[in-house]
Amino acid sequence: MKSDIYRQVEAALSENCKSDELHFVVAVSGGVDSMVLLALLKQLAKHRPIRLTAVHLDHMYRADAAIDDARLVRRFCRQLGVAHYVYRRPIKRLAAAAGKGFEEVARTTRYHLFRALKVALRADYIVTAHHQDDLAESVLMHLLRGTGLSGLVGIRPLDGDLWRPLLNVRKSAILDYAKAQAIPYNNDVSNDDTLFLRNKIRHQLMPNLTSDYNAALVENLAQLSDIALQESDYLAADTAAFYRQVVAANDELALDRKRYCRAPIARRRRLIRLLYHELIGSAQNLSYQHVNLLDNWLMSGAINTRQSLRGLNFFIDRAAVRLSLGDSKTAVYEATILQRGVNLVAQFGLTITLSDEPLSGHGACDTLYLPAKCAGGELVVRTRRAGDFMRLKGFKKSLKKLFNEQQIAIAERAKLPLLCSGDEVLWGKGLRPSIYQAAASAVGQVGCYAYIEVAN
């Protein structure tokens, strides 16, 4: 008699993997999830033309415990008659050398290795043991970090060559199956280390939310993921169609500005992200603020002005927005004139708020206390020009000398955003603070407060 968990994996196989003959590279850590997955797939392989290869990666993080995991995986694979490969990589050392987090480097290394083995063996899919509790944790973690619709998907059941057949299975069902079938497994004590955000969510936040607010939290988050998956895929197809309508790639790249401006903001935002995916290769470093800043400029920017953001250059012509790749090598002299209130300066990723009164909630911003002579004139954001200077404490200095003293690279000087009043530079990204950043008392009567936020 088939168990519930077996039927769930069988249904996932029929839904996601359509080929008659399949070769799976199965990621096996030695923990209960992946050991149960391997056992279930071996059962399926008795009734279908499925070939299995197991792969295990030792992160060289837990000394003897990691060696025990590798031994257990080898022993279980031999027992099942499954081909297997075991690798070792010094993840902690690699993370330190790259200046990245342990979890990020571990994940990147794992999938790079798994994919290389898949290609070498000409396998069809990499199979991992992510389950419904993992899915719920991912959705919640993305919410905490800040996310859009695609982040609410959490983990996709089928993502390119990655297949996750246990994504509809609860952790408790996996543990019950392991017990009933006497499947051996090790407990990874690093999964209890709450220094890692996912573990903190798993062991602290999820239990508290489940016990105090919603006993069906895992199931509800999984439902949210499914809704987000279907709608995200639908919108992705719509955005791809919109891209084909408004982006021309003949002699040069160009964006039909009229069609762009007529579209709803949701379509425009998604198009901006798709532009970066298609032309740069990724929109990973494009924040919510970046998208909004660029959209605002594309909607209202003047003809013959240009912006450069994250490797893409935009120039507003009469009929279209011309696009080019690479960092801008020439200075952009068009000034953005600031008004009272919130000003979005897309080219430089700046949000500048001007107020006649001090505002709260801007502690992380650069704050300028501007005297009446500055506040009453025209405040602009632009790049350098001849004659620029900055007032420092007790004296003023030409911008050129300041660049030299701070060893600002020649190539960067023409692209550095400056907040100016005439020839006076009041603030410059990465430059020494002017007297206007010191304190309100340094300028006498304050005519205007400027709060400058730089997008990451």
CATH architecture grouping of the largest domain: 3-Layer(aba) Sandwich
In CATH terms, the superfamily of the largest domain is HUPs
The total beta strand count reads 21
Average residue pLDDT: 89
- Which regions are unreliable across 5 or more consecutive residues at pLDDT < 50? 329-333
Q: DSSP strand (E) fraction?
A: 15-25%
| Beginning-to-end CA distance, first to last residue | 56 Å
* CATH fold label of the largest domain: Rossmann fold
Per DSSP, the total helix count is: 16
Q: What is the radius of gyration?
A: 28 Å
Shape: elongated
Total individual domains: 3
Structural commentary:
By secondary structure, the protein is an alpha+beta fold. It has 3 domains: 4-191, Rossmann fold, CATH 3.40.50; 250-325, Uridine Diphospho-n-acetylenolpyruvylglucosamine Reductase, domain 3; 336-454, no CATH class. It has 16 helices and 21 strands. It has helices at 4-16, 32-45, 64-80, 91-98, 102-121, 132-145, 149-152, 171-181, 197-212, 217-246, 257-262, 265-279, 288-300, 372-375, 399-405, 410-413; strands at residues 22-27, 50-58, 83-88, 125-127, 158-159, 162-163, 247-249, 253-255, 306-309, 312-316, 321-325, 336-337, 341-345, 350-355, 366-371, 379-382, 389-392, 395-398, 418-421, 424-428, 446-454. The strands form 5 sheets. It has a 6-stranded mixed beta sheet with strand order 3-2-1-4-6-5, sandwiched between helices. The chain has a 5-stranded antiparallel beta sheet with strand order 7-8-11-10-9. Strand 2 (50-58), helix 3 (64-80) and strand 3 form a beta-alpha-beta unit. Helix 2 (32-45) crosses helix 8, helix 4 (91-98) crosses helix 5 (102-121) and helix 10 packs across helix 12 (265-279). The radius of gyration is 28 Å and the shape is elongated. The two termini are 56 Å apart. 31% of the residues are buried. Residues 329-333 have low confidence and may be disordered.
